Amino acid sequence: MTKVSDYFGCLVFDDRIMKSRLSSKVYNSLKKTIDEGAQLDSSVANAVADAMKEWAIENGATHYTHWFQPLTGVTAEKHDGFITPAPDGGVMMDFSGKELIKGEPDASSFPSGGLRATFEARGYTAWDPTSYAFIKGKTLCIPTAFCSYGGEALDKKTPLLRSMEALNKQALRILELFGTEAKCVRTSVGPEQEYFLIPKELYDKRKDLIYTGRTLFGAKPPKGQEMDDHYFGVIKPRVEAYMTELNEELWKLGILAKTQHNEVAPAQHELAPIYTTTNIATDHNQLTMEIMQKVASRHGLVCLLHEKPFAGVNGSGKHNNWSMATDTGVNLLSPGETPYENAQFLLFLCAVIKAVDDYQDLLRISVATAGNDHRLGANEAPPAVISIFLGDELNAVLEAIENDTPYNGTEKTQMKLGVDVLPKFNRDATDRNRTSPFAFTGNKFEFRMLGSSNSIACANIMLNSAVAESLEIYADRLEKAVDFETALHEMIKKTIKDHKRIIFNGNGYDDEWIKEATEKRGLMNLRTTPDAIPHLLDKKNVDMLTHHKVFSETELKSRCEITLENYCKTVTIEANTMSEIARREILPAIEEYTAFLAKTAKNKKAVDDSVPCTYETDVIKKLSGLASQIYSGLDELDKAVIKLSDAADVEEEGYMIRDELLPKMNEVRVACDEAEVITAEKFWPFPTYGDLIFGVR
Ligand code: ADP
Ligand code: MG
């Protein structure tokens, strides 16, 4: 048995490898680039490239790739061999600093939302030295950012790095005011990843899963998740074998896979890593999703990452645990030991509260996809309305500050910031509310609206930028203040007063809450992707994001376009898949079964005219009725798809999908699901929900 510590990170060109393989001069200069963003000169780049190549070849690599995250949401790679012809007819293995630093993929087929005309298709990729290179299969993967020649970001990593820089800059200003020493502030993320595992042989029989990643048909099985017997339940041997191999693969890549358990729905599981710096966490999460699927296929399983693969069954999300920390290891969202630390903590806490309230729409936009629309508000995920859960204790502290009243904690204390010590909160007491979209959990916030297949980059770009904005406003005021403590106290008070509407500690699944949130508190309820996305171009959002140099206005326009386009394409593919399955599989199955029933009834009558045939007659009538309904429903569905080409722009197309196409799809589905439950099992053309979710034994 090899020990985990022996092979952890063995496929990563990490600090250990760099130290042992680079000269100290090269190592120090690379380290400066990684830690402080210093420019890398070409001799250093060449030395790093050479060491990387030697290490990769020793570990079996023959190719290298610039690994990037285009706006498709998945990662992209184009492999180039290290080989170069040698004069003697043989080959040499070659990799230069130039090739390490910059790549020029012919990337004309990636979505750019008009940023890059196809005739000048060549965007370029640029090495991100803050994320380690790694080996996947036989390829050395170099994490990169992807830009157009005009410098516009064509990926998710570039704005993420920019947003981290924006937050760093503003947070350092605040820390300086408090006299807290730090060279930099980084955001950290630990994403909890949910997924489903189903048998591959059943998956192969469902075109809906193959084409769309989710089921478009399926009646509710007699047993679903109502017994709550799966959550944290004993892990089945086959799933355990999968998890074991998955962990090993992730550990080899230096991914800190830590926690695994069964989730609420049958066949649903979760994997959580130990948190790390946001851009690395993002790279790691993309890799994790890829490897989850790869390892599943080795076990005869398919890993579904869709946010709502089964209607009526728990969907899959991703919880983005987020915090800010200094290079010295101080978590800025951790209540401190001294009055000063507490005041600093409260200021950062308030910055988040203000950010989430001011930019509710951006957070909602960051998780908006066709798949996640089925989940948000569907009674198990958080609603589409954003609110913050703080827990009773912290809430009481804020109320005491707002009203200048004593805090009734374990000891009565008047809350004067910078003077009194905050009462110790019980960490456990803060983590009970699972219905909140944005919950404070002791020393971090947990943003729970992300869909399981979302790249976490988008949510963190918005979160980092919005918090940077709050911090900038605070820093501007505090730097000018004559009396720092009074100004601080007043500002925290003002934040609580102005933004307490976003704080909600009750049940987020309750319909009453949605009413209160929207009618009394004026919070936004952006239910669907077409409702949400256009707000990306609202003036306040464009102003904030361009001010912090996270996006240019052109980039925002392109992202708005691409996200809506993606929504439209996704649902159109679903509608076409639905039409094909219903016409070519479901209707013929119904016909076959009714023909069988008719023949049976006829045979029975031939034996004796008095034999009752109520069952056959009734089911034939019902199924024939449903078949007609499905048939005409499909006709309307196909028309609705064709009509989409009349839309003036992608925004209008999105509304047509939301208002016309999706309701039509739902009608067809309801009729098909009704037919399923009265059709004999052996006539039904594909595995049912019961087969799929209880299929792994
Ligand atoms: P649960 O939410 O299931 O109770 P935990 O709260 O222990 O579990 O952790 C959930 C995730 O939050 C883990 O990925 C963990 O690494 C991450 N996490 C813990 N502390 C931080 C932090 N300071 N910043 C970001 N993520 C964190
Ligand atoms: Mg959690």
Which labels suit this protein?
Four Helix Bundle (Hemerythrin (Met), subunit A); 697 residues; Ubiquitin-like (UB roll); binds magnesium ion; six-stranded mixed beta sheet; Creatine Kinase, Chain A, domain 2; alpha+beta; 23 helices
Description:
There is one protein chain. By secondary structure, the chain is an alpha+beta fold. The chain folds into 3 domains: 4-155, Glutamine synthetase, N-terminal domain (Ubiquitin-like (UB roll)), CATH 3.10.20; 162-218 and 233-409 and 435-551, Glutamine synthetase/guanido kinase, catalytic domain (Creatine Kinase, Chain A, domain 2, 2-Layer Sandwich), CATH 3.30.590.10; 578-693, Four Helix Bundle (Hemerythrin (Met), subunit A) (Up-down Bundle), CATH 1.20.120. Helices cover 49% and strands 13% of the residues. The strands form 4 sheets. Strands 9, 10, 11, 12, 13, 14, 15, 18 and 19 form a 9-stranded mixed beta sheet that branches. The longest helix is centred in the C-terminal third of the chain and has 55 residues, at 553-607. The model is unreliable at 426-430 (pLDDT under 50). Adenosine-5'-diphosphate is lined by residues 188-190, 192, 272-275, 321-323, 331, 431, 441, 443-444.
Domain count: the total is 3
Shape: globular
> Which percent band covers the strand fraction?
5-15%
Based on secondary structure, the structural category is: alpha+beta
* Number of E strands: 19
What Rg is obtained from the alpha carbons, in whole angstroms?
28 Å
Tell me, rounded to a whole number, the average pLDDT: 91
CATH topology of the largest domain: Creatine Kinase, Chain A, domain 2
> What is the class of the largest domain in the CATH system?
Alpha Beta
Name of the CATH homologous superfamily of the largest domain: Glutamine synthetase/guanido kinase, catalytic domain
Ligand names: adenosine-5'-diphosphate, magnesium ion
Helix content: 40-55%
| Uncertain parts | 426-430
Largest beta sheet, briefly?
9 strands, mixed
Report the total helices. Answer: 23
For the record, the CATH architecture of the largest domain stands as 2-Layer Sandwich
